[in-house]
Amino acid sequence: MKKLLIYLFALTLLLPNFIFAEEENSDANADNKVEQVLEVDPNLVRDKGILVPTDKGIQQANQVELNKINELSKLPLESLTKSYLLGDYKSGKILEGYNIDEVRAMASTSKLVSIFVVFDKIKDGTIKLEDEVTIDHEVASLTGSSYKLKEGDKTTVRNLIEAAMVVSGNDAITALAKHVAGTTDNFVKMMNDKCADLGLKNAHMVNPTGLTNYEIEDYNKMTTREMFVLASELLKFYPEILEYTKIEKIEDPARNYIDYNTNPILGIVPEIDGLKTGYTNASGRCVIATGEKKAVDEKTKDMRLIGITMGSRGNFERFVASKRLMQDGFENYSYRAIGNTNEPLRTIEIKNSQDDEIPIYQKELGYALLENDEKLKEIVEIDENLVAPIEAGTSIGKISYYKNDNLIYSSDIIVKDKVFEKGIINKFKRVFEEIFINIEKAA
Predict the structure, then answer these.
(1) Which of 115, 123, 253, 303 is 20 to 30 A removed from 327 (C-alpha atoms)?
(2) First-to-last CA distance in the chain?
(3) Which residues constitute the domain of residue 175?
(4) Which of 321, 337, 353 is the last residue of a domain?
(5) What are 312-344's pLDDT values in tens digits?
(6) What pTM did the predictor assign?
(7) Residue 96's beta-bridge partner residues?
């Protein structure tokens, strides 16, 4: 009994740290390190049927984790974050947002600016992916999230990009910065120039890592709306970034190193394949996430969403907020097919036609980003004075789709089969033409 009481007391001390123990080091970017609750009680088995990120990768939740997640899931996103945004990559449309124009500390999400500059320099030939980089004392001495590089280590630009994106290595991104620009100061100028080129007017970069610079009491910052633009432009120019950000873990047996991707919903929300996380005392817990919902036959087209949550108090809050934002986005929105080209819109009468009713069809499918329950208004316009004969595929009108009085899509209306004119000779012509058409289809 005494032993049980000791276990319970220890557990109550641990609970305030939640499942993802947070590193409270004001001088370090603890960027997203995730740890499970120490299992002081052997009953805390991982068998609760939902997946969570831990310091040993994705695992099933234990009871303590499940209880906390269920508790936070009852709260609105505004209680879990200081700002959030859900946007469509293709159109640039912001679907949902909260406090998106307030300037915020970025922490390690600002490594997206750094990696943008690195990819620019690879593109223009300044550096190459296979370049060998020697680690100096400054790089090896950096705090916070780390690839655990030591002075004198040699590695490639490719490996450093991977380490910067997957485990948020401050040493890795700084090594890249110095390889590109000679000094971090020179690289920071490149970062600010890149932000200016992208039109990010509120952006302000002080280092490649996102760590707070306590000597000058300053840090990397921009608005959440600008972070959406940054992520969209990076994906537009360098979609290969996703080949790094979707990596589950980095293992280097020679250095006895293993660490897992900092993205809390990678491997949990199936569509997710990026992008970058961050944490400092100034920023709180944040993540810029992205993922793609694949097309389903002709019913939908591929849809890539970008979801940003900023300023969460802890890893629990960030996990629940980012998971909900992205899951709900994929469930509620889609690039939905507009209209149907296989089923007739209706039938019409055409003067001098052999048939009383002629089926008409929408010529081409359209696609629009819509909520699943969103209804569109249809307006069909048929040309006047239609007279047979009319060749198959001929446009005989237009169909238009409106959302809240705004035109979303329009298509020609056609007849798929030839409309034959009346008369005994024309009836024979029709029989022979249909015979040849069927022979061609059979062939």
Answers:
(1) 115
(2) 84
(3) 77-250+257-337
(4) 337
(5) 999 999 999 999 999 999 999 999 999 999 999
(6) 0.87
(7) 86
